[in-house]
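May I ask you to comment on the folded chain given beneath this request?
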Amino acid sequence: MRPIIWGMRYFIAVALLAATPAIADTCPPAPDHAAALAERLALLKDSASPAEAQQISDMLWQLWTDAPDAKAQALLDEGMRQRSGFDLAGARETLDELVAYCPDYAEGYNQRAFAHYLAQDFAAALVDLDRALEIMPEHIGALSGKGLTLMGLGRDEEAQDALKAAVALNPWLNERALIKEPEGTDI
């Protein structure tokens, strides 16, 4: 009877050890920057110049790209580096890993959407942008990216809605030039 008990103990110990990496390899929640984001968004709406708006936008990007932990940060940084170097396949692969690891981190989806957009895979970009905006509705980069992506899909009316939402948050956004005024309106 003793060999069976030892065998069961060994089996249980091996099973627990095998499960431990999965438990240890889970993404923590993203840092809570809600108050800082709200403060910067309010400042952005009241900014007096493009230069001031750019400084505030840079602060927003610092918050958005603050990943949940070191592993997520390394994946995000690598994916962004690859995308900047136009290794779009590599960027998407790295960002796929980030999104699988941290499914509730908006910037993973936003950056993967950017890589899809650059590869002109607008349908995949739109899926990622919608998920990023589901997590973080006031992500200006995702909103403007959604507008550009919808334009790429020929869905101009929806694109205008997304661009207007982005410009409502950042009146100095470069994409404001893409907003069409209603006919009969003087600018």
Summary: The first helix runs from residue 2 to 24. The chain has nine helices and no strands. Confidence is low (pLDDT under 50) at residues 5-24.
